[in-house]
Design a protein that fits this description.
InterPro entries: CBM60_xylan-bd, GH, Glyco_hydro_5, MAN-like. Residues 85-164 form the Carbohydrate binding module xylan-binding domain. It is found in: Secreted. The protein contains seven helices and 19 strands. The chain is an alpha+beta fold and 405 residues long. It folds into two domains: 34-163, Sandwich (Jelly Rolls), CATH 2.60.120.260; 168-404, TIM Barrel. Strand 15, helix 1 (205-213) and strand 16 (221-222) form a beta-alpha-beta unit.
């Protein structure tokens, strides 16, 4: 986190933090959910030399699709609403001393959703994504045909089901997607949620419920979920190659453990070391989003609405087709005695949200920051933070509602 005046302190490297599962705290309205729709796999088309409908009393309706050679069964379906889950009921003939389990590849609209080994008994295999309403193509491919005198490896698919609400946020190039539609957000930083504020006491379940209940639909909340480790302050400049290697390795580990969430970096030091390395640092296949932090409205009383670093950073990100978020933005205010009043800050926040989110490639803004206690103190009479009753949060709710309903 960078605050005004902190440039000369803290990390002496380009990168301060690595944020993971960035959009995990997305509040999804219950009205967005819909019941699963089931389709029978035996209605798909496959070369009769390689597969066919197959009588199986344990399958839905007593029939399934069988594929016994390396081939794909293809077809289409129509989704009445956007969907985020695809569940496939499959089994197969396990055969051979190596690679014995049949392997299945599933694709929607020509894009591979997943590959998996299947067992010798019926079970569901589930993938998540973000697909829109309307017509879609689907295919199931058998990948490792094998047979010998004693056994035969084959694949059977019974049904596939689509469902879910808006679900996980995904990325399509430089845009975020939710429920098959582009997703842009006006969100919040809540650093005290996990105990990083107010004496280290995390929010209670009741406080969390109250907080999320007051947000507009699909509001993004950024918080902290890790303990510090290693050096509190880096003691030397770190080469770009080392930073990129860390980004790529950490992002791959995150995606291996949790493929449903996006990975963002904390490369906010663009203000002090330039932007020429932004594209290089974020080019890894598992890194989804970059972020910058800005508090320039108060910097030397500039009243700046948009940071001057935005244009060059955006250009770098657009060159690799990935989105940028403003991970932190804010200004100091209080009811009285400060350069900016609370209502004045709300007006400035609205201007910032409008200006940033009008720029192609900017996927969202997280405003700093919401707390549960009165943030005004003798040590900090003009804080960046506010409670949810602060007018700036009404401005954020209004913008988020306009963006996402």
């Amino acid at each position: 986190m960078i605050r005004p005046g902190s440039a000369a302190r803290g990390l002496s490297a380009r990168v301060a933090a690595f944020g993971v599962a960035l959009l995990a705290a997305v509040v999804v309205p219950a009205s967005g959910a819909h019941a699963a729709t089931q389709f029978e796999a035996e209605t798909l088309t496959v070369d009769p030399a390689y597969g066919s409908a197959y009588r199986d009393r344990a399958a839905s309706g007593g029939w399934a699709l069988a594929i016994w050679n390396n081939a794909a069964a293809t077809g289409g379906f129509t989704a009445a609403a956007p969907f985020t889950t695809l569940s496939v009921s499959a089994m197969g003939g396990v055969c051979g001393s190596t690679d014995a389990a049949p392997r299945m590849e599933v694709a929607v609209d020509g894009t591979v959703v997943g590959r998996t080994a299947v067992t010798g008994a019926w079970r569901d295999y589930r993938w998540t994504g973000s697909w829109g309403a309307g017509s879609h193509s689907i295919s199931f491919r058998f990948l490792n045909e094998y047979g010998d005198g004693g056994c035969d490896r084959f694949l059977e698919v019974d049904t596939y089901r689509i469902g879910g609400g808006p679900g996980f946020v995904t990325r399509s190039g430089s845009r975020l997607m939710l429920g098959g539609r582009p997703f842009t957000f006006a969100g919040l930083n809540a650093f005290g949620m996990s105990g990083c504020d107010n004496g280290g006491v995390p929010w209670t379940d009741a406080q969390l419920d109250s907080y999320f209940a007051q947000l507009a639909p699909n509001t993004v909340t950024r918080t902290w979920a890790f303990r510090p480790y290693g050096l509190p302050v880096l003691d030397r400049i770190v080469a770009d190659a080392i930073i990129k290697a860390f980004f790529d390795e950490a992002a791959a580990a995150v995606k291996a453990a949790d493929p449903n969430h996006l990975v963002a970096t904390g490369t906010m030091y663009q203000a002090f070391y330039g932007t020429s390395d932004f594209a290089y640092l974020h080019a890894g296949p598992e890194v989804d989003i970059a972020s910058i932090h800005e508090y320039e409205y108060d910097w030397q009383n500039s009243n700046a609405i948009v940071t001057g670093h935005l244009a060059p950073v955006l250009a770098r990100m657009q060159s690799i087709g990935k989105p940028l978020i403003i991970g932190e933005s804010g200004l100091r205010a209080a009811a009285s005695g400060c350069r900016t009043t609370l209502t004045g800050r709300a007006s400035v926040i609205t201007q910032k949200l409008d200006a940033y989110l009008a720029r192609p490639g900017v996927a969202g803004v997280n405003v700093w920051g919401v707390v549960l206690h009165d943030p005004v103190s003798a040590q900090d009479p003009c804080p960046l933070e506010g409670r949810l009753t602060d007018p700036m949060f009404a401005a954020i709710r209004a913008k988020q509602t306009a963006l996402n309903g």
